[in-house]
Design goal:
heterodimer, A: 66% helix, B: 99 residues, mainly alpha, Helix Hairpins, NADH_UbQ/plastoQ_OxRdtase_su6 (chain A)
Chain lengths: 173, 99
Amino acid sequence: MSYMMYVLLFGLVLGLVAVASNPSPYFAALGLVVVSGVGCGVLVSSGGCFLSLILFLIYLGGMLVVFAYSAAMAAEPYPEGWGSWPALRLMVGYVLGVGVAWVFLGEGWYEEDWGGFDGLVGVSVLRGDMVGVSVMYSSGGWLLVAGGWVLLLTLFVVLELTRGLARGALRAV
Amino acid sequence: MTPAHFAFSSAFMLGLAGLAFHRTHFISALLCLEGLMLSLFIALSLWTELFNLTHNSASMPMILLAFSACEAGTGLALLVATTRTHSTNRLKNLNLLQC
């Protein structure tokens, strides 16, 4: 079990190395999909299964799908992947940087530090994080209203930014 | 520093470096920003799971995700507007303020 957490945490860091080395946006979006999948595994191993499902649904299924088809605006005839020299140079540099930080900060990591932890004894329908999120509807009601208002406002911001028929913020002609 | 803490801290630093050292495309910078938000979500969820007796702070990553969705939408609207005016999203084309 601690080996699985080890692999998942490695996958998290290496996936973000693959995104941060700035290849063509198709490959960067693929790296982000891998990172969010592995992040869901990390959350499940620590007992947060509801938040992991939220991450899959909203982040992967909502936001990254939009990024995937927006990457069509960056279409080029020869997209450079992770084998091209600039991206490979950045990847090696980032891996070396993480390794150096590991050497300096990784003191006293024993076998049991890698394992997942589940606070509830036994299995129940009501998991801890699900009960915690429902606090958002009771005590955090005003924060929910603020979040909904911000989302509605973002819709109008996006519509105004992309309108630009005869006027608009970013129209040059 | 526990291994999980080191993992998402270095993930955050890597996303920040990818955003700072962007190369050609505007959307690569937006994807690195999404990586930042993802590492923050995992960080908040892990802190809620591992360090709290009660799970009252499990609404923090949800609110973060909602605001991150707003930010991603606005960033993509800027990308669309840039592509409509400059016909590409390469960063070398954004040269109105050239010195």
